[in-house]
UniProtKB/TrEMBL annotation, chain B:
Residues 17-98 form the KaiB domain. The lineage of its organism: Bacteria, Pseudomonadati, Pseudomonadota, Alphaproteobacteria, Sphingomonadales. This is Circadian clock protein KaiB. CDD domains: KaiB_like (cd02978). InterPro entries: KaiB-like (IPR039022), KaiB_domain (IPR011649), Thioredoxin-like_sf (IPR036249). SUPFAM superfamilies: Thioredoxin-like (SSF52833). Signal peptide: none annotated. It comes from the Bacteria. It comes from Novosphingobium chloroacetimidivorans.
């Protein structure tokens, strides 16, 4: 059969030429007959561009004119976390996602003339990555397509962002009046501004926070040591305004502490920032205010008790309502005058001179010939001042009614002198009408005799000499202060 | 698949099929070389089909293709095959029996 022999010869010739072509490297792919379907195998070599593409660190892909994925290298597959087959099956733009896909389509349009590139956020294994996408026109065997490169610049961007943050952070720290320091994940101090020097002598950088600062916390804070504060911040919680005491060499201060985690992009916490504010003075002021409030409450109570006593005794001694009204009103005025004086001097006490002057003022001028003051420039504590104020009121009232101030010629000498650990204050009248011992002791006298109460070192003495009344009052030296 | 067609005249049209495998260097080269040859020597007398066997491996059986790239002249008969990237223009023209 000549035809069949010719056919055999032709096939033999064809087989030989195929073998020769393979041997001589004229082909770079072979079709291998499989059980189900034929498969194409590329004959890779050192010079194969595919091997080169596969070895590249940057992701590379080729798309045909319709945007269909023809090829994706290993680096790109790794970036997506999917095999080239998956990418081909699901569609390249499906893998890119809506946002990145839109950007890349724009790039493909722009790249019709020349290369173009932009940055996109690419959905990858373990989250989004910043990727620089470059697109260039590519002539394919079957038309025009595009060559795409994907360069992961996440680390570069993060490094730049970290550098910028670091710069801003340092500027903030430097400008802060408070002590600001940064600790790493170990709780070791990595940065400290100049304010930290107020709490730590020398450089705190490099030390563990816990060791650098000896802190004492109130039980209610739930913290035991400085390390706990750092631990809370490193665990992701911000802590503000924790009160503590900070002990440095020979000194303990009240401080307010705040700590907050420092996060990198994402949720990774790489350290924490701690601020320390010295509130020792503020605390001292608060304590002083609390003390003053207690003192005020105490005095108001005392005053009310005093008012009650004055009311009862004035009623008992009054003949009628009119007399009560006058006497009670004047006594309250005396009390109020003393209080006003005390308040004007911020409750620091008054001098005897001031007390005497305020009581005498309505009747006679202090400094005039009728009033002689000696050694009365003595400051007395507030409680004693209130008591003395009332006594002086009664003495003045008495003098105006019956004594030295009832006429034009009477005089009063008031002197104060220290006797051992007490002060003797003497009120001496003369030049007034002759004095007689009263038949009964009114409240005025009771107040004079007992008014100093616990403040009196010794009972107050009232002597009714015919030439004038003499009253001796005693207060402990501890009730006075240098004027 | 990609088809190019010249001004086909019945009886004198040369039907060429180039089998390639994606973009292997020799596939790309073969496509480029064939484009040049048909443009220069076969004006208006050809019908070219490029078949990517990576995408359509089942089409290899029609012409019993083993090596890639391979150019098949299926018309006029007898069928001629040229294996390689078609860089030897003389050889291609001889096989295609084109009278230069």
């Amino acid at each position: 059969m000549p035809e069949s022999e010719a056919e055999l010869r032709r096939r033999l010739e064809e087989a030989e030429s195929t073998l020769r072509a393979i041997r001589e490297g004229e082909v770079d792919a072979l079709v291998v007959r499989g059980a189900e379907q034929d498969e194409v195998f590329a004959l890779g070599g050192q010079d194969s561009y595919r091997a080169f593409m596969e070895a590249m660190e940057i992701g590379a892909a080729a798309l045909d004119g319709q945007g269909k994925l023809i090829y994706a290298n290993a680096a790109l597959c790794m970036l997506f976390g999917r095999s080239a087959k998956d990418l081909q099956k699901d569609g390249f733009f499906g893998a890119l996602g809506e946002s990145a896909g839109f950007t890349v389509r724009q790039l493909l349009q722009d790249a019709a003339q020349s290369r173009s590139s932009t940055q996109i956020a690419l959905p990858c294994v373990g989250g989004y990555r910043h990727v620089e996408v470059g697109v260039a026109p590519l002539a394919l065997g079957f038309g025009q397509g595009h060559a795409l490169t994907f360069t992961d610049v996440t680390e570069r961007i993060e490094a730049a962002a970290a550098h910028e943050s670091d710069r801003i952070g340092r500027a903030i720290m430097a400008s802060s009046n408070e002590a600001v320091l940064v600790c790493n994940q170990e709780g070791r101090i990595t940065h400290a501004n100049t304010g930290v020097r107020n709490f730590f002598n020398g450089s705190a950088v490099g030390r563990l926070f816990d060791e650098a600062f000896t802190l004492g916390f109130a039980l209610s804070s739930g913290l035991m040591a400085g390390g706990d504060l750092i631990g809370v911040a490193l665990a992701g919680s911000a802590v503000r305004g924790v009160e503590a005491t900070l002990t440095t060499v020979g000194r303990t201060r009240d401080v307010l502490l705040s700590a907050a985690p420092l996060r990198q992009s994402g949720d990774t916490i790489f350290g924490c920032i701690v601020t320390i504010a010295d509130v020792t003075e503020r605390r001292a002021t608060e304590k002083r205010q609390a003390l003053l409030m207690d003192e005020l409450t105490h005095r108001v109570k005392n005053t009310l008790t005093l008012v009650m006593a004055i009311a009862h005794r004035t009623i008992a001694a009054s003949k009628d309502m009119g007399e009560f009204r006058t006497a009670f009103g004047r006594r309250l005025e005396a009390l109020a005058a003393t209080h006003s004086l005390l308040a004007s001097d911020v409750w620091n006490g008054l001098t005897l001179e001031e007390l005497i002057a305020v009581e005498l003022a309505p009747f006679v001028t202090v400094g005039s010939e009728r009033v002689k003051l000696t050694g009365v420039d003595v400051r007395v504590v507030p409680d004693a001042a209130v008591a003395l104020g009332l006594i002086f009121h009664e003495l003045v009232t008495n003098a105006v009614k019956y004594g030295a101030l009832s006429g034009e010629n009477g005089r009063i000498a008031i002197s104060a002198a220290q006797q051992d650990d007490r002060i003797e204050i003497v009120w001496r009248e003369h030049g007034g009408p002759p004095v007689m011992q009263p038949e009964k002791m009114g409240f005025g006298q009771t107040l004079i005799s007992r008014g100093l109460g616990q403040h009196g070192e010794q009972a107050t003495k009232v002597e009714f000499h015919p030439e004038g009344l003499v009253c001796r009052m005693y207060i402990a030296a501890t009730q006075t202060a240098a004027a | 698949m990609n088809e190019d067609q010249g001004t086909a005249g019945v009886g004198k049209t040369m039907k060429l099929t180039l089998y390639v495998a994606g973009q292997t260097p020799k596939s790309v080269a073969a496509i480029r070389n064939l484009e040049r040859i048909v443009a220069e020597h076969l004006e208006g007398l050809y019908e070219v089909e490029v078949i990517d066997l990576r995408e359509h491996p089942q089409l290899a059986r029609e012409h019993n293709i083993v090596a890639i790239p391979t150019l098949v002249r299926s018309l006029p008969v007898p069928v001629q095959k040229i294996i390689g990237d078609l860089s030897d223009e003389e050889k291609v023209l001889v096989h295609l029996q084109v009278d230069n």
